[in-house]
Design a protein that fits this description.
651 residues; alpha+beta; Alpha-Beta Plaits; 6-stranded antiparallel beta sheet; 4-stranded antiparallel beta sheet; 22 helices; 16 strands
């Protein structure tokens, strides 16, 4: 529809009111606060100094975000697929003790989380110790009693393949005692006591047998007693763990308050960041920003509630205000597609409305199937209802829902019902004839089936592409006329229409079509050099205009992808249907059919939704936008309160 006009906002206010004014403007959701550039000509102005505010808020925000997942784990609140949204009044939240309760909940939650970490770490250590003591339960001496004045003792294990008897014989040739304490499928556990002077020989023999030392330095009791003590300690810690978890369950009842606090602190962080864009004197602050023209009255009404001076002016010459697109309820859902390419320059043409119509049609042609279209609509609408998405995701889901409607309508025209599923079921499951009015409707739709008549669908695709390209040229023509360049528009664009009209006339009357086509070519040659005084250069530019027909032809052929995407979706669906019908006998066959049918069609839906989205967008970006689009605008980014967990926050 259009790019909204912007007003420059300048506010002079007392420093004590700066936060309240920022919050009031944020609540309007229509003011972009820009960083005020200081100059040497204004020595009284300086940047607001709040060195400790932002780090303090970010630390509090980090604590809150750490506490929320833990409280979620212990909350009895029913889980939901989407975003949790709370309605609250910030003034009441801060006044009735809710904010203080939320902050106390966060503090205690983090304390309990630290306790849980310590208890779990100790439990893991005790479990590992008890597991390591099990093979040594028959050993009746303290495990740390490994050194005397003349002897040393090693505890360890050898792999299952080690010859323990041979190892014992070799070790006991000297002053060594090698005791096999226990053995299982994983290892043989040995206690080796030897004179210290034998250490080198004993170490070599043990290493050759694959001996792995075990360290029990912390165990001052025999294994059985040490195991009993560790078990008792583990029981105590498990009880402590349960007590801490019960406290967290009680705290989780305040999860909603903590989530609200998260948005409150996120909003405080935004305010702190915005304050860094302001300038100050000893007693006043200066704010500059951008306001959409249609919200001027609301901004003035809000600012009149404060003791401040403000102005709303037109942009200065050479300024590039941010861009806000304004479209109707249908087209606004396609704005993010334009944003993926680039926003238009401020004051230039917004193509969203026209693009949304072509996007709707082309997506449907690429994915012409009633079943897939209805699934896409149902999935997107359910996502909006269940997930409570933010505005950006909501618009994306709404756009795909509209695209699903288009696919459904095109499916009725061209006979796509999960490919040819009704026909396959009639032939293979019910043995019914498809040579009936019902069979014809499901097989060919209200018009024709692209699989049966691909050339007709190709002509339709090229016709849609031609209309798309000519619409782009018309927009360019109107833009030039609006900018006072009607002569350039007539001379550089209209001759192509004459040529295209002649080519179209060839279908009905070759003589007339040839005459009109030649006339169009001559006009391009003579007029395309509009504004160039040098006759030779004008002629060269005219020849360049004729050569530009190659580009138009190339652009037109790009619309063959409409046919390609449509056939891909239909063929894959048909293959899935054939595969399922082959095994549709008996109970097992029917169950397998249902599973393969659902999985195959869901996969086809996912693949072709992505393909149709990408290729439809490509036709807009390259073929359509290339005819007229002036990009380079920066999107309008108003300051808004945080809304991860809350909506309709009022300040």
């Amino acid at each position: 529809m259009s790019v909204s006009s912007m007003k420059r906002l300048t506010v002079f206010a007392f420093r004590a009111d700066s936060d309240r004014i920022l919050r009031a403007l944020m609540n309007l959701r229509c003011v972009e606060v820009r960083k005020l550039e200081l100059s040497e000509a204004e020595p009284a102005l300086r940047r607001l100094q709040d060195e400790d505010m932002l780090p303090r808020i970010e630390q509090q925000l980090s604590d809150i975000r750490s506490a929320i997942p833990l409280l979620n784990r212990y909350s009895t609140r029913r889980s939901r697929l989407g975003r949790i949204v709370h309605q609250f009044d910030p003034e009441v939240f801060g006044r009735d003790g809710s904010e203080q309760k939320a902050r106390e909940t966060v503090r205690r939650t983090l304390e309990y989380e630290q306790e849980l970490r310590q208890v779990n770490a100790e439990l893991a250590r005790l479990s590992a110790l008890m597991q390591s003591l099990i093979p040594w339960m028959d050993y009746d001496a303290p495990m740390n009693d490994a050194e005397t004045k003349r002897t040393s003792t090693l505890f360890g294990s050898c792999p299952p393949g080690a010859d323990i008897a041979l190892l014992q014989n070799r070790l006991e040739e000297g002053a060594v005692c090698c005791e096999l304490v226990s053995a299982d499928r994983t290892a043989s556990y040995l206690c080796v006591t030897f004179l210290r002077e034998e250490r080198e020989r004993v170490s070599a023999e043990l290493a050759a047998a694959g001996f792995v030392p075990a360290d029990f330095g912390e165990v001052s009791l025999p294994p059985e007693a040490a195991y009993a003590k560790a078990s008792e300690e583990r029981g105590r810690l498990e009880q402590e763990l349960e007590t801490t978890q019960e406290k967290l369950r009680e705290l989780a009842e305040s999860l909603e308050l903590v989530e609200i606090l998260c948005d409150v602190e996120e909003t405080n962080r935004t305010v702190a960041l915005l304050r860094q864009r302001l300038a100050q004197t000893d007693r006043c602050t200066v704010l500059e920003g951008w306001v959409p023209g249609f919200t001027q009255d609301a901004v003035e009404e809000k600012l009149n509630q404060f003791e401040c001076a403000f102005e709303l002016d037109e942009p200065l010459p050479g300024e590039e205000p941010p861009v806000l697109l304004r479209n109707n309820q249908f087209a606004m859902n396609f704005e993010w597609v334009v944003g993926m390419y680039a926003y238009p320059k401020y004051g230039r043409y917004d193509p969203t409305f026209i693009m949304s119509i072509f996007y709707f049609i082309i997506f449907g042609l690429m994915f012409a199937d009633v079943g897939y279209g209805l699934l896409l609509v149902i999935g997107c609408v359910a996502g909006i209802r269940l997930m409570h998405p933010r505005p950006g995701l909501r618009r994306m889901l709404t756009m795909f829902a509209y695209c699903g409607v288009s696919a459904t309508l095109m499916g009725v025209l061209f006979g796509g019902w999960f490919g040819d599923l009704p026909i396959a079921m009639m032939e293979n499951l019910f043995g019914a004839s498809v040579d009936t009015s019902v069979g014809h409707f499901f097989g060919s739709g209200l018009w024709f089936n692209p699989l049966d008549d691909p050339m007709t669908f190709l002509i339709l695709s090229l016709a849609v592409g031609g209309l798309h390209l000519i619409t782009g040229m018309v927009i360019r023509f109107v833009i030039l006329c609006r900018d006072g360049k009607a002569g350039e528009a007539i001379c550089t664009i209209a001759p192509y229409w004459v040529l295209f009209g002649g080519l179209a006339t060839l279908i009905f009357d070759q003589t007339a079509g040839m005459i009109v086509s030649i006339a169009g070519g001559v006009l391009i040659l003579l007029l395309n050099g509009y504004g160039v005084r040098n006759p030779f250069k004008r002629l060269l530019k005219g020849l360049g205009g004729l050569y530009g027909l190659v580009s138009y032809a190339s652009d037109l052929l790009s619309y063959c992808r409409i046919l390609a995407l449509c056939l891909v979706a239909a063929v894959i669906a048909k293959v899935v249907n054939i595969s399922t019908m082959l095994g549709a006998t008996g109970v097992i066959g029917m169950l397998a059919m249902v599973v393969i049918l659902i999985a195959g069609h869901l996969l086809n839906l996912a693949i072709n939704v992505l393909g149709a989205f990408v290729h439809t967008a490509r036709l807009q970006y390259l073929e359509f936008f290339g005819k007229f689009y002036e990009e380079g605008g920066e999107p309008f980014d108003p300051a808004v309160p945080a809304d991860q967990y809350t909506e309709q926050v009022r300040f």
